[in-house]
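Retro notes (design track)

What went well: tokenization of the new backbones is finally stable.
What didn't: we kept losing track of which sequence belonged to which structure.
Fix going forward: every design gets posted as structure first, then sequence, in one message. First example under the new rule, 98 residues:
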């Protein structure tokens, strides 16, 4: 069992730019679902989106690349990423409203 958990992690991502009003949260939720990642995404303040996610490290790397890219109508100008230990906190991925 420890081997399985060593391949898992958590990630906290914040992105800034043109990331609100462009379908960014739905895009992030879709990518998470396709990669089998659990967690959440939400708008924060002005021109900022935040996400917390857990899953396989390789899948999280792919997820991070997608979040930094965003949908074609978005424009991510800055990002902040913090990696952490997998905690099994989330059972699915969802869009949060607060």
């Amino acid at each position: 069992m420890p081997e399985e958990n060593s391949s898992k992690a958590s990630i906290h991502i914040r992105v800034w730019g043109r990331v609100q009003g462009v379908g960014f949260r739905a895009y992030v939720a879709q990518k998470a679902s396709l990669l089998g990642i659990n967690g959440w995404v939400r708008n924060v303040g002005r021109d900022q989106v935040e996400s917390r996610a857990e899953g396989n490290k390789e899948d999280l790397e792919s997820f991070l690349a997608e979040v930094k890219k965003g949908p074609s109508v978005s424009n991510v100008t800055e990002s902040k990423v913090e990696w952490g230990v997998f905690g099994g906190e989330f059972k699915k991925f969802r869009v949060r409203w607060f």
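Added context from the reviewer: The mean pLDDT is 94.
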